[in-house]
Amino acid sequence: MKMKEQISIEEFDGKKFKIRTLEEDDNKKAVVTHYLHNYHNGVKKHYEKEAKIYLNEIVEYKNQEENLNIVSDIALQQLLFEVENVPFPTPKNYTFKFIDLFAGIGGFRMAMQNLGGKCVFTSEWDENAKKTYRANFGETPFGDITKERTKKYIPDDFDLLCAGFPCQAFSIAGKRGGFEDTRGTLFFDVAEIIKTKKPKAIFLENVKGLRSHDKGKTLETILNVLRNDLGYFVPEPQIINAKEFGVPQNRERIYIVGFREDLGINSFEYPEPFEEKVFFKNVKEKKVVPTKYYLSTQYLQTLINHKARHADKGNGFGFAIIKDDEISNSILVGGMGRERNLVIDKRITDFTPTTHIKGEVNREGIRKMTPREWARLQGFPDNFIIPVADASAYKQFGNSVAVPAIQATAEKIIDLIKSKL
User: Which residues partner with 207 through β-bridges?
Assistant: First the structure.
């Protein structure tokens, strides 16, 4: 975005319309796209007042720039087309409504829409993740959920709150830890939204380490807040492994589900693992991948030396090569995330480097997985658009939830909710 005196002119959906926005007002596109996405239902009223102001700005700027005199209704229909003509539009006959917090690139949303859900609010602070989210769902997420300005855009009367919030330690003042003790953490903001909006159900996802974080005090406080302060039936959280739900990745995450007490739900069974097992060969690229994904001889030797040093100390750290009939290690951001998931692919024929490397391209066929392979490891279909550079793509998929595991659990939640309506 090019800035000029805190005013910018940026592309609206990359082509036909442009929007004039102040640098500090990142929510304009979110307001407009949320309004348009809810244009055919009652939720649009929640965004309508501000959205109409911003829509008028779009039309006014386009007229001035191109010396046109377009009718606002025509412009609105064009904008509606552009937010709805995306790979993963809202189901036409949706059966429940949800909000998507810490949305990333939309793993929760993908799962919920597959089950017939309608997203009425989403937030995500990372700009590159927002770009990917918009490309696939036609909606720009709101920004920082810790700000009251952002929270005010959350509508009432949605059924399910979804959040993959970060793990943070609490400053526990009391013996058990309660709502006030979580202030200053992102869980506090989630709890505050639950307290205010009172959704029928909640679905939280976090790293496996949450169970032992701060000697178990963090999880204990979360459960205490949900059960006693907020009044939700919360069964014992469960560790769910993505490899048991249709993707070849050893990825363990803790799932926490809850139901508002007045629904009368007092039991919940997490989904059973799928019978069919899949392996890396099921997600491997069908064609020869670009040379840039193959390791240089010098870098490969560095990894070999690094692993040997740790082996001498009795550690199991270092790179790992995943065979076609194996499942990958958990894909992670940073550290050895990519190096723990190398593969052998000897289909390469041109060893000419396409990027600046030290040494030559290795002749053993050792390469990194591609971003598309990481997308498949998380359960994203091949028509999921990846509009960002590789570095951002690896980060986004590494941070994402595993869609099939989320969907299998969410189906159980939704079935219970519907049984009480």
Answer: 253
